[in-house]
Amino acid sequence: MLEKEKCDLSRYRLQRAKELIIDAESLFERESYKSSNNRAYYAVFSCMRAVLALDGEDFKKHSGVIQYFQRTYIKTGWCFGNPLPFWVCGRGEYSSPVSQFDSTC
Questions:
Q1: Does the reported pTM lie above 0.85?
Q2: From CA 39, how far away is CA 28, in angstroms rounded?
Q3: SS3 content of the chain, % helix, strand, coil (to 5)
Q4: What pLDDT score was predicted for residue 96?
């Protein structure tokens, strides 16, 4: 997959996550807590898949996505260090121990 395609897929997944968060908030306000929790879970999951897209990775099962994310980002401590990923800090920069992208992403 080309770098531009990785970035486009990541952006698409982040946009989906934003939509899911809006849904989760709406459901929460209507006291539909189980449904709200479900939408929030899928928003986080979509964010994780957005990061994996930048690495050129994807998995058929949730467990594969979670295991890869945990192994690559949580256990290494990368997600708690600097620089923050571009989708957190809002700048066009992305730095990862797995991949390097320029500011056009």
A1: no
A2: 10
A3: 65, 5, 30
A4: 44
